[in-house]
Write a structure and sequence with these properties.
Shape: globular
Largest sheet: 6 strands, mixed
Helix content: 25-40%
Radius of gyration: 15 Å
Number of helices: 6
Mean pLDDT: 88
Length: 159
């Protein structure tokens, strides 16, 4: 799988997953450099108490800079207050603003228990790239594979 044929698994708090999927939050911020090209599919893992894959989106762009630069460029799209942002970025020298597009909510969330039953699945603290085997595991765990997820899997994982 090369850089153009990978997906990202992004862990987010449930309130942010809901906002991303509703389209009211279009930029997710991270404390480190994110190097993913536009078009990369992003699977959204909602952390506790939800603990499930709840939807997906695609990367439209990634801005990397200082925390101040990223906030200045994306503050209205982050879905968080300046205070929350400053607390999260405290001590960071670099930040990334991941602009997301085309959000899709899965018809049925894929719970962590199902993902783990299908293999050794570990949600990331922040994000990680998924390999073909990881994507096959998601397919095996999903009781009903959503059409959007099915398309990503067929594009990235040869049959």
């Amino acid at each position: 799988m090369n850089d153009l044929e990978r997906a990202m698994l992004l862990s987010v708090h449930p309130r942010f997953a809901t906002a991303i999927l509703a389209g009211s939050k279009t930029v997710e911020v991270r404390r480190q450099r994110v190097a993913a090209p536009p078009g990369t599919p992003v699977l959204l893992y909602a952390t506790a108490p939800t603990m499930a894959l709840v939807g997906m989106a695609h990367i439209a762009a990634v801005q990397v800079g200082t925390p101040r630069q990223v906030w200045s460029a994306a503050r209205a799209q982050t879905g968080i207050s300046r205070r929350e942002y400053d607390q999260y970025m405290s001590g960071a020298t670099q930040a990334s603003g991941i602009t997301l597009k085309e959000p899709v909510t899965f018809d049925e969330p894929v719970p962590l228990a199902a993902l783990r039953a299908a293999g050794t699945f570990h949600p990331p603290q922040s994000y990680r790239y998924l390999k073909a085997n990881d994507l096959r595991q998601v397919t095996a765990a999903a009781p009903v594979v959503d059409a959007a997820l099915s398309k990503v899997l067929s594009d990235l994982v040869p049959a």
